[in-house]
Amino acid sequence: MKIAILGGDGFCGWPAALHLSNQGHEITIVDNLSRRRIDDELGAQSLTPIRPLDERLNAWQELSGRTITHVDLDVAQDYDGLLAFLQDQGPDAVVHFAEQRAAPYSMKNARTKRYTVDNNVNATHNLLAAIVEADRDVHVVHLGTMGVYGYGTAGMKIPEGYLDVEIPHEGQQNIETQILYPTNPGSIYHMTKSLDQLLFAFYAKNDRVRITDLHQGIIWGTNTAETLKDERLINRFDYDGDYGTVLNRFLMQAAVGYPLTVHGTGGQTRAFIHVQDMVRCVEIALNNPPAVGDRVMILNQMTETHRVRDLAELVGRISGATVEMVPNPRQESAENDLHVTNDTFLDLGLQPTTLSEGLLLEVEETARRYAHRADLAKIPATSLWNRRTHAGIPASLTGADHDGAEAGSASSTAAGN
Ligand code: NAD
Ligand code: USQ
């Protein structure tokens, strides 16, 4: 297949590009390198020494004999460039990773909120509009999030995107139908993924675009079979308070001797998937597209659920790290239960890589190898979900009792807006 990977220089996109190239697909990465500029803006680099994209691509060519090309294009801003790309290259499929993906970054201040909405919603809409204008049959595989379902306790197993409902119909038989599972995003970032869902539903219905939306859980791990082949192919490892995700943060914190930062009671239960399974899921999704005219195919891309404080306890036990309960900078339920259906990927052959001590220690070992690159001052999560102290919101939620809180800044962004 000819596959365009939007966001192919990122944490998920890079290993996915290598994996799909290794399978013999013709890969083009479309990426404006905004994530690298956000590293500079935040003064927080990947723990692992990721190489410039052209060096990565040359190394891959040298090692595998396969060529991956790069088009430097802002999918959200350069509609004409995107349209010309689709017309010239004619990809069979587009994997869309090109969004601002950190919930804390999206909640920092008005500027980062606006950037996240503008970037993510425009990127998705530009892609869909360009596919229609180019008049091509392109399968869109989008990386969405489990977070669109919300993180309360649903009281049921969360289905794959659609909810069976029965609507009372006065004087007649009740109507049985399926609706998009009601969204309940917990951050501006997660909200953009909810907005993406509506765009997908519309374009699948109106223009018969074939779309798969992968509702992905939190990725953990850093290496895949391909990124391990050479240090020049190394994947990014985010550990800072904005981009670092919880389990990788805990493993990095254990490696550098920093107490594991559990937010609040650590009672949040979340869905997880290892980075190696993520690339496999993307491959499976590409090989099993919906038919033209089908509704959006929504798959839950996760393999297990864990409560945050249990993860901290596990990492503490295997590494000897201490755990520190810190005030929660986010607004989220103190405790939630989470049960998720992931039958489609299992039926299509995914064999989950579940959390094991060996794999956890492997990630910690990677973090230990690059511990000298860590800036411990970047570890605390300082982006607060709410500062509106006059709106009747308790101090425990506004961060008024939160140490090390940052001021809401409004400086210009390095991400290009
Ligand atoms: P990332 O920030 O590492 O990568 C995103 C890439 O997209 C970056 O290389 C960035 O430069 C590029 N990009 C962003 N906006 C762009 C634009 N307008 N034009 C061109 N390129 C652009 O993020 P990631 O962790 O690789 O996540 C990829 C996708 O997967 C995101 O959409 C995210 O929501 C989703 N996801 C990630 C996780 C996770 O744990 N990392 C979990 C669930 C879902
Ligand atoms: N948390 C801690 N301590 C930390 C960091 C996080 O207790 O040091 C807690 C958070 O408060 C939250 C949970 O861990 O309750 C998860 O936080 P996270 O930063 O690991 O994950 P999240 O913000 O949800 O976002 C990440 C990715 C995002 C993706 C999402 C999938 O950044 O792109 O969409 O995971 S999901 O969580 O399933 O919605």
Automatic annotation (TrEMBL):
Annotated segments matching region Disordered: 396-417
What protein family is recorded? Answer: Belongs to the NAD(P)-dependent epimerase/dehydratase family.
Pfam families listed in its UniProt record: Epimerase
**Name of the protein this chain belongs to:** NAD-dependent epimerase/dehydratase family protein
Biased composition of type Low complexity is found at 406-417
Q: Which residues form the NAD-dependent epimerase/dehydratase domain?
A: 3-291
Taxonomic source organism: Kocuria subflava
User: Which top-level group of life is the source organism from?
Assistant: Bacteria
